[in-house]
Amino acid sequence: MTTVLLVRHGLTALTGPVLAGWTPGVHLDERGLAQGAALGERLRPVPLAVVVASPLERCRETAAALLADREPPPPLHVDERLGEVRYGAWTGRELKALRKEPLWAIVQGHPSAAVFPGGEGLAEMSGRAIAAIRAWNEELGPQATYAVVSHGDVIKAILADALGLHLDGFQRIAVDPCSLSVVRYGRPGTHVERVNDTGGAVASLAPARRPARGAVGRPPARRSAGRRAGDGRAR
Questions:
Q1: Tens digits of per-residue pLDDT, 73-97?
Q2: DSSP class of residue 229?
Q3: Cα dist. 35→9, 40, 149 in Å?
Q4: Residue 128's CB: how many other CB atoms inside 10 A?
């Protein structure tokens, strides 16, 4: 099976408050450089046939961290199909302002219908990104392991496709800066092995403890065996 390591670029000064999009000259900051170096070290034992990167600086710099200290280094290819969403008039604007736009609700709730003014639609982005992955899989063959360094929404779209989700469900997937997601493509099917792996501590995933109600030491009421627990939603 072809193994694809999907890596989001590391942190930049704009990551979080501003929708950088295709803004030129957005580089990794000190945090992002450290993230890239740490991930490169984690992945050092994994042989890579190639590294494929979005053309934007922050992705090429993250890709360079994955290639560092590999002898011989695998080839680096730049593929525009794996570039950031073309956000058009939204590019460079603060997210807190964009949340007030009517389009924001569509982006969050019905992303397959979202088309950015002067830019592209999320469905268009998804199509080009998935086509790029399939083309690289075909070129490199079923025994290859390779890395793709791209952007949050692009990786979410690729993962949604691999999971068999409609694009309208891709906002349920979290892809943090410099996170690692792993997909294996082949027959009889596609397997998603990791999503949003940052290699950090997991203590924050535990639910916060709440003060006990009632008498001290009193055990909580037991749930009836016939009652179903409420199901949560993953994001």
A1: 999 999 999 999 999 999 999 999 9
A2: P
A3: 9, 8, 13
A4: 16
Distance CA 151, CA 174 (A): 12
What's the pLDDT at 204? 66
Distance from C-alpha of 170 to C-alpha of 165, rounded to nearest angstrom: 7
Q: Would you tell me the crossing angle of helices 152-163 and 122-140 to the nearest 10 degrees?
A: 70
Using an 8 Å Cβ cutoff, are 39 and 180 in contact?
Answer: yes
- How far lies 107's CA from each of 80, 97, 124, 168, 220, in Å? 22, 14, 13, 9, 42
pTM for the model stands at: 0.85
Going by pLDDT thresholds of 50, 70 and 90, the confidence category of residue 217 is very low
CA-CA distance, 195 to 147, in Å (whole number)? 14
Could you tell me where the beta strands, DSSP code E, fall in the chain?
Answer: 2-8, 51-53, 76-78, 145-150, 180-185, 191-197
Label residue 233 by pLDDT band (50, 70, 90): very low
Which residue blocks in 7-75 are alpha helix, DSSP H?
A: 30-42, 57-67
Instruction: Evaluate the CA torsion angle 91, 95, 97, 102 in order and state its sign.
Output: positive
User: Smallest Cα–Cα separation from 5: which of 159, 127, 137, 145?
Assistant: 145
pLDDT of amino acid 188: 81
DSSP string, 152-194: HHHHHHHHHHHHT--GGGGGG----TT-EEEEEE-SS--EEEE
Q: How many CA atoms lie within 13 A of 213 on its CB side?
A: 2
